[in-house]
Amino acid sequence: MREGKEESKKTGGGGVKSTCSFQDLGTDVRFRRRGFHKTTERRNEEEEEGREDARDRRTRIFQASDEEVSVNWGDVDLRNVTDTIRMDRRNSKFYNSQLYQEYSETAQNREILSQSCSDALSIYEELPVHLSPVPSSLAPSLPPARRPLPRLPPVIHPHSLSHSGSNSSGTSAKFLPVPQPPQAPPARTSSPRLSVSLTQSPSLWQEIPEVRNSAEFGELTDNQRRLQEVQFEVVTSEASYCRSLDIVVDHFVKSKQLGELLTTQDRSWLFSRLADVRAISHSFLSKLEERVESDMMHFTVCDIIARHCQRFKKVYVPYLTNQSYQDATYQRLMDENHGFRRVVEKLERGPVCQRLPLRSFLILPFQRITRIKLLVQNIVKRTAQGTEEEVQAIKAMKLLERLIQESNDSITQMKSIESLVSLSARVDFECRTLPLVSQSRRLVREGPVTEMMDFSLKETERSVYLHLFNDYLLLSLNKEGGRFTVIDHAPVSELRAENCRVKLHSLEKNLFRLHLNKKALLLSTDTQGDKLRWISAVSRPHPVIDYSTAQDFTQMQCVRAFVAHQPDELSLEKAEVILVHQQSSDGWVEGTRLSDRHRGWTPESHLETIASLRVRQRNLLDALKITTATAAV
């Protein structure tokens, strides 16, 4: 104890070292953990005693248990947390890490590389991730400081969240990326890029001095090491996420210049509950860091994730549901309010923002919640079967999937009701009237087709418009002013689509028959892709794929993010993997995403075929393990 006191005097009177890095602590990390909170409080009280204007920087500690807080975390609690918790960034071991946007792109590029070719894999398996070379083709095509973000789909479909900021569950945990070590933001040049060089050394769990110098480290298997790296990535990536959230809240949401230009409603739609999201994330990060400190060699994170899922639900579901209003408000203000545009662009040029666009910060919660789920999936792949750790990992994965599904359902229902109300006001019925507005009705696909008529009639063809819902099909004539006259409708259970492979008309291509209850229509589309998409949409529901017998499916990975614009399209982020069902001659691919089995259409220009048999087999085995483990618990 005397030696400890003498050391305290040498370091300026604090009870422990003031460093914020694991790597500087080495084997003293456990000593630091024992006296951390109390010493920090005592030091701050001494420094601020007698100063009425001093800020209270003491760490707040929840008195209730994790389970109690997770159940009772309501709106009042969130406001209290937002107002009272001091997020003392000096206490975070990872806070000075890279921004989440940078982490996400770096991670996706590494995952794309891991799927590239079997020859590369045979080499990279022997190297740490940070030493793996990265081809220049993976660099962003545009400087991220002003990289345009795609417009979000006008009608959001049930799978709109399951892609955000994610990687395919087919990506093995062996090749999972890890964030860069804590460092100050680099000075920005006139043409900054989001991604740092992927050859820089990342902050690996195995690089922590206490881990690297431990005799136990050499006894761990490769799989055990990879498991710890994946769990460590949950912590470091959450720190990056918190840092980006702090920037958007402190730099944009709290901007007085911006606030003066926004009405109360616009402010609510634009920023929703970002401050609440930040408060929850900092609390979550604090628990993760405490767990790492408590047992550096064998820490787990999935039980913490599971306990926080109820808290996540309180803030993420409202934020994600607000997404369509947020996007519409942002676009309207940028187009119509020149003062808003000017202030936003000025703030984006600020050094703290690293010249990243505001929208890249607004979509962070979409990206993060799905990224956590995919990291947990990779933890499940690496966790020993039949252990308590596996039970907790599967529990966390299921809770996250349920949260995402609830968000999707909320988004879809809201948008569907709005679109049905709008359509109902623009529709006239020549046939029996069908009430359109229904809580359970969802749009599957809509668009114009050409109906081929009998040759004996004066008009041999006419343009018709199809609205295919999950329960009914409307056949309409398009009128002026965006109105429709419904000439027929039929329940989906009575529909059947048939591909016409023979050219029945000398000048017509892309023909298919649509069988209703008492008649059949011969329809034509402009492209083969439209024809195949209509046939696939009418043929729902599709059979569930059995990954154990899917070896013959072509696999493709996304190399450029795609945002769906039709409900039958499949949004994809970079590095996500799909099983291919069919391709059209005009560049559309129908596939099933490995990570969640959602099916849809994506442009072929955004995809790349996975040539390696070894990689394809690994992807299927990983996906099969996830589905098997989920079904068993």
UniProtKB/TrEMBL annotation:
Gene Ontology biological process: intracellular signal transduction
The protein's name in its UniProt record: Rho guanine nucleotide exchange factor 5-like
Biased composition (Basic and acidic residues): 1-10
Domain of life: Eukaryota
Record domain SH3: where: 551-612
Xref: CDD domains: PH_ephexin, RhoGEF
Annotated InterPro entries: DBL_dom_sf, DH_dom, Ephexin-like, GDS_CDC24_CS, PH-like_dom_sf, PH_domain, PH_ephexin, SH3-like_dom_sf
Keyword DNA-binding carried by entry: no
GO MF annotation terms: guanyl-nucleotide exchange factor activity
Pfam hit, one: SH3_1
Keywords of this entry: Guanine-nucleotide releasing factor, SH3 domain
PH domain span: 442-543
GO-annotated cellular components: cytoplasm; nucleus
Annotated Pro residues bias: 141-156
Compositionally biased tracts (Low complexity): 157-172
Start and end residues of each DH domain: 226-410
SMART domains: PH, RhoGEF, SH3
Region of interest (Disordered), residue spans: 1-21, 33-56, 132-195
